[in-house]
Design brief:
Layout lengths: L7 E8 L4 E6 L2 H9 L5 H4 L4 E10 L1 H13 L2 H10 L9
Antiparallel strand pairs: 1-2, 1-3
């Protein structure tokens, strides 16, 4: 698969109140900014601010959507373990 097709990322945000939101995008920085500006998903608009806590890069659009669905099916404890196991993402939002 070409690099252009492997540009999708799966990300997890920690929302206000401690809830977790999972999504996919080609530009994580832009997407986190959109979420925090109230222009993201309806769920995150109601649970601002959000903070990036997990990211997986190098997916195709299809594999990112499959991975997103798999993460969303995980129990909260397994999602929390996934977030803890990952090294900290670079800070993208000041």
């Amino acid at each position: 698969m070409t690099a252009a097709r492997r540009r999708w990322s799966v990300y997890i945000l920690r929302c206000a109140g401690g809830t977790l939101y999972t999504g996919v995008t080609t530009d994580v920085n832009r997407r986190v900014l959109q979420h925090n500006a109230g222009r993201g998903a309806a769920y995150t608009r109601a649970h601002l601010p959000v903070r990036l806590v997990y990211i997986e890069k190098g997916h195709s659009r299809s594999s990112a959507l499959v991975r997103e669905a798999a993460i969303k099916r995980l129990p909260r404890a397994r999602k929390a373990a996934l977030v803890r196991s990952a090294r900290r993402p670079r800070r993208v939002i000041p």
